[in-house]
Amino acid sequence: MTQGEGTAVVLRPPRNTLNERAVGWWRTQWLLLAAVPVVPLVVLGALIEPARFWLLLPAAVLAAAGTAAAVLLPLWWFRTHRWEITEDAVYVRTGFFWQEWRIAPMSRIQTVDTVRGPLEQLFRLATVTVTTASAKGAVRIAGLDHEVAADLARQLTRITRDTPGDAT
């Protein structure tokens, strides 16, 4: 991702991966999401004998689908999510079939936020959100080690402070 004077930007995959603990964080989110409909269906199936089969069958299907998603999707996401910051911009690439590249020039950054939800705290992770004036919305880097996220926020703050604003 370099830019010479009078030349176009050459995109290459960003260098950095997320923290490996992000896989466990995503898996936990999937399992909790699957548990929301499964637990009431199992409880009702145990309590209402005439409807037991019709309650436990969808519970089993949802539990199997949720478990499969929890095993496979986080690994896939971990392999495809990349990020990098340079003196010029923040680069984020997500997705596999529908890849999305987000580039936030330093001169356009308005705020840098670090967020740690309860599960992120449990996994010692954080999300860095870089807000620009873009109609597309903020650039998010989720699944970072919490110390890396804090360092990244400090570094982005320093770089954006030292970068002249974009007049366009």
Automatic annotation (TrEMBL):
Coiled coil: none annotated. Residues 79-156 form the YdbS-like PH domain. PANTHER family: TRANSMEMBRANE PROTEIN-RELATED, UPF0699 TRANSMEMBRANE PROTEIN YDBS. This is PH domain-containing protein. Keywords: Membrane, Transmembrane, Transmembrane helix. The chain crosses the membrane at residues 30-48, 54-78. It comes from Streptomyces anulatus. The keyword Transmembrane applies.
